[in-house]
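As the next step, I needed to go through one protein, both as residues and as discrete backbone shape codes, included below for the reader:
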Amino acid sequence: MGIFLVILSWTAMFLLFLVFILFLAYCLYVKHIHMKYDHIPGPPRDSFLFGHSATYLRATRSSKLIHDTFLEWAEIHGPVCRQNILHYIIILVTCPEGTKEVLMSSKYPKDRFFYKQLFNLFGQRFLGNGLVTAQDHEQWYKQRRIMDPAFSSLYLRGLISVFNERAEKLMTKLSDVADNEREASMLHLVNSLTLDVIAKVAFGVDLETLKDSSLFPQAVQTCLKGMLFSVRDKFFKFNPKNRPFIKEVREACHLLRTTGAQWIQARKTAMENGDDVPNDILTQIIKTAGKEESMTEEDEELMLDNFVTFFIAGHETTANQLAFCIMELTRLPDILEKVKKEVDDVIGMKQDITNEDLGKLIYLSQVLKETLRIYPTAPGTSRDVLEDIVIDGIHIPGGVTCFFSSYATGRMDKFFKDPLTFDPDRFHPDAPKPYYCYYPFALGPRSCLGKNFAQMEAKVVMAKLLQRFDFTLLPGQTFDLQDYGTLRPKSRVVCSVRRRNHKK
């Protein structure tokens, strides 16, 4: 027995010694990484081993916006700014030439550090290898090529009737709010609207979330919040206090994917029966899978990946843009009157807006673009740079992640004079175009496929809102931002709503 205890003791000591040696080796490797990249400007690390992780955690757990920290770092340390997280190096790039070099090329893949985190959330598959997260270029290109017809200009022009019809449901809702002198959370209402729109035009389903309470909006918000904690706090899942929330996230992911499976099966059945089906996103998702000689379980999962990707991306950012736009216009009477006059001149009192009308709403387009400059709902994108590169004269050894912050560049005085002043004339047709410092939909081959879809929808909805209603923010509302991976108004833009008096 004594010999057994001695052996056990020596084994434990050996294992402890081995752990110590491995830890020491890792610390030496981290030191090597520091020596390799510390010539790049950057803020002081919070700690030797964890780098700037504590800064991210503080922002996630408080009301501070991490993107304001990025802006501060860019202004202090310059257009190429280093961040350390363990042995990973992230380079914040706000240099237009560097942005052009990396984002406009297909040779720099999506960042494995971030986008792999979106494959699943706490063990439940989330975005998987869909169009946004696919890192392999060939896998991405195959999906993108087949999805393109659903976003062609000809197809989008045919959606104007759906945009009008769904927007009218919101107008009816707001008319009831105005007549009964109730307050309205505009963020909630436009979120419900854009969710209904994407469900109808992309998947042929009537959700009617503006009428009925639906589990979908809450499921999407839960997934986005879970995504934020999963990416920025590696220890979140190990805290027992977080288990109830983690369970909610997993259930929300499961709801989206099981619903997607039902919708896909119903459409596949219709296609097999020879029924007429729209040439929408759902049809394209099924056609993507149909290119395979035989369907595997992974092919089925890939269909669901793209379902969830388009379902979330197709409504969340547009809703936030609309809410930010309403929020800003409530405090800018001169700009509000100018854009209302344009809407009155172009569409008058008619109910249906045409594609030709949209082309004439030039100042409204400027207002929406300026909204995305100050409030980019998707605040940045990232790429892996595996080979050595020189940006702004600084040599960057390969093996880093470059993060491009449209939030930071949009608020920097070097690119936009008085950047916090809301000025739609920055985007006047005759004004000089921003040079690789304004990219709310990213840039290059991996730019947002739904950009034109989103802006058509936003334009129709804003035109109808400006045509018919006046909004006043209620006391206590702030202009603060909230980070859920996408940026949204923290105070939810709660307004009193009145019908416009066109007789004035």
